[in-house]
């Protein structure tokens, strides 16, 4: 009888020891995970800090104050001018880029309560019309091989820009900019976020996302704020 009791006591001791070891291992893993998360968070802060320092005066920032007045915005010099020597396809693409950019940065449009919805609809409408024109050129038997290739390249570029815009808008939403609109053309990215003011940390976050997704340099990125 004693041997059975001793055996039970021995088993209880082993079970108790195993439980304590599991608790110890769990505690160690938790502390290590917590430390890892803290290190990652610190690294992210350091990265964003370095981004802010690197920005300097290179990035054009447009801020709209509480009275609705827009700061240094887009001028006619900023909008791509159609070259009379360019091909018909290139001219049409340039016209669409200029129209969308002008609507996006228009002070009158920014005053509208439905600005973000309206601008996204307008962007998709004009892009859609341009895509249809390119499709007609591509499918037209009388189109030269060079013209067909040019139209196809522009169409593929528009598809890529559209995908990048959606990706960037989704990424901005995950970083706290829940309502934004992005318009990307060949050599420029225009971003408008729904925020009262933009500080250097905002610019660092937004520009990092845009540069990563598009490959554009800072001087080709224009960030604006429009609280709606």
UniProtKB/TrEMBL annotation:
The chain crosses the membrane at residues 12-32. Keywords: Coiled coil, Membrane, Transmembrane, Transmembrane helix. The keyword Transmembrane helix applies. Residues 37-99 form a coiled coil. It holds the Pfam family SpoIIIAH. This is Stage III sporulation protein. It comes from Alkalithermobacter thermoalcaliphilus JW-YL-7 = DSM 7308.
């Amino acid at each position: 009888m004693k041997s059975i009791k001793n055996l039970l006591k021995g088993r209880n001791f082993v079970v108790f020891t195993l439980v304590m070891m599991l608790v110890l291992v769990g505690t160690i893993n938790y502390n290590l995970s917590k430390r890892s998360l803290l290190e990652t968070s610190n690294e992210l802060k350091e990265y964003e800090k370095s981004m802010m320092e690197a920005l300097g005066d290179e990035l054009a920032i447009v801020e709209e104050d509480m009275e609705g007045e827009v700061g240094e915005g887009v001028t006619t010099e900023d909008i791509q001018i159609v070259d009379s020597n360019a091909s018909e396809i290139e001219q049409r693409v340039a016209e669409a880029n200029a129209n969308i950019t002008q609507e996006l940065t228009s002070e009158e449009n920014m005053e509208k309560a439905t600005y973000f919805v309206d601008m996204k609809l307008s962007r998709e409408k004009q892009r859609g019309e341009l895509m249809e024109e390119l499709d007609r050129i591509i499918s037209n038997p009388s189109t030269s091989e060079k013209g067909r290739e040019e139209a196809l390249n522009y169409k593929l570029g528009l598809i890529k820009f559209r995908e990048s815009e959606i990706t960037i808008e989704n990424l901005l939403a995950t970083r706290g900019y829940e309502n934004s609109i992005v318009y990307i053309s060949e050599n420029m990215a225009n971003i408008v976020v729904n925020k009262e003011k933009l500080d250097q940390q905002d610019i660092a976050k937004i520009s990092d996302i845009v540069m990563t997704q598009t490959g554009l340099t800072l001087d080709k990125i224009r960030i604006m704020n429009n609280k709606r």
